[in-house]
Amino acid sequence: MPELLVLADSLAFHGPERAEPADHPDIWPQVAARALGGSVELVAGIGWTARHAWHALGHDPRVWAAMPRTDALVLGVGGMDTLPSPLPSALRELIPVLRPESLRRKVRTGYQRAQPRLSRAFSHLPGGGPVALPPRLTVAYLERCRAAVTALRPGLPVVALLPSVHRAEIYGGVHAGRAAAERATREWAAAQGVRVLDTAALVAAHVLGGHGNPDGMHWGWAAHRRVGETLAELLGGEIDGASSATPSRQ
Q1: Sign of the dihedral defined by the CA atoms of residues 49, 55, 61, 66, in that order
Q2: At what angle do helices 50-59 and 135-152 cross, to 10 degrees?
Q3: In this structure, which topology does domain 3-85+134-245 adopt according to CATH?
Q4: DSSP state for residue 171 in the 8-state scheme
Q5: Most buried residue, 3, 66, 85, 111, by most Cβ within 10 Å?
Q6: How far is 250 from 51, CA to CA, in rounded Å?
Q7: Which InterPro entries has this protein been placed in (predicted)?
Q8: What are the domain boundaries of the chain?
Q9: Is 221 helix (H, G, I), strand (E, B) or coil?
Q10: What is the number of other CB atoms lying within 10 angstroms of the CB of residue 136?
Q11: Taking the model in full, what pTM does it have?
């Protein structure tokens, strides 16, 4: 029974109304695992970039426990890296830990109000303005994840999801960084023998047509189902071949 190790952002577990448990049957990792007749270890977080996935590999004991029985690695991160980030990511991620609470609320509220306007303004800069993580760093962290896992499990199939699309007002509808990130991810994947899943091609009509979550970013169940089923098709024959090539699981 194959097991997938999925490192992902909130698109992996957020449905049409809210974030769901990791074992919810309709999220795409579970759809894919079910189609393959197996299971999934989902390690994910809200707003995760490729850097967060790399950190999880070294710090989350769930990953260590799953590694010996993993039959495929799915890198469902990189999409959040492409979102506008008017404030440098390191500073933005400090907002939740500001003290006192009254200051934290004021800063968070002020940033949320300013972000759409700043995203639109910065989109006119060369390259579309700053993003959460530049493409060169995204692929560097994706490669670290791939190399670390395949060093322990040689021949393991690896699939990377390309960045999705959004119509989120909180980002001013801006997604100028997506194209460059997709190009960089495709180039890295081709060089390393990683399969890619073109997420945008599967969900664009769903998301941009307003059929997903009202936040304009997360997906409805139809999109989850399509991504999960396509992932299963992509992995179908590869898992069996890799299982015979990888060391026996102890």
Answers
A1: positive
A2: 30
A3: Rossmann fold (3.40.50)
A4: G
A5: 85
A6: 29
A7: OctT, SGNH_hydro_sf
A8: 3-85+134-245
A9: helix
A10: 11
A11: 0.93
* Cβ(179)–Cβ(79) below 8 Å: no
**DSSP structure string for 80-134:** GGGSB-SS-HHHHTTGGG-SSHHHHHHHHHHHHHHHHHHHHHHTTSGGGS-BSS-
Residue 214 confidence class, pLDDT cut points 50, 70, 90: very high
Using alpha carbons only, what angle is made at residue 169 by residues 168 and 175, rounded to the nearest 5 degrees?
55
For 147-186, write each residue's pLDDT tens digit: 999 999 999 999 999 999 999 999 999 999 999 999 999 9
- For residue 8, the one-letter residue type is A
What 3-state DSSP class applies to 168? coil
Closest C-alpha to 131, from 95, 92, 158, 103: 92
Contact 184, 135 (CB under 8 A): yes
Distance of alpha carbon 164 from its chain centroid, rounded?
A: 9
222/110 Cα distance (integer angstroms): 35
7-23 burial, b at 16+ Cβ within 10 Å, e below that, comes to: bbbbbbbbbbeeebebe
3-class SS of residue 213: coil
Contact 118, 61 (CB under 8 A): no
Q: How confident is the model at residue 196 (pLDDT cuts 50, 70, 90)?
A: very high
The answer to whether the CB of 78 falls within 8 A of the CB of 160 is yes
CB-CB contact of 22 with 62 (8 Å): no
Query: Who's near 108: CB < 8 A, 6+ residues apart?
Result: 95, 96
pLDDT at 247 over 60: no
Residues shown for the chain: 250
Distance spanning both ends of the chain, measured CA to CA: 15
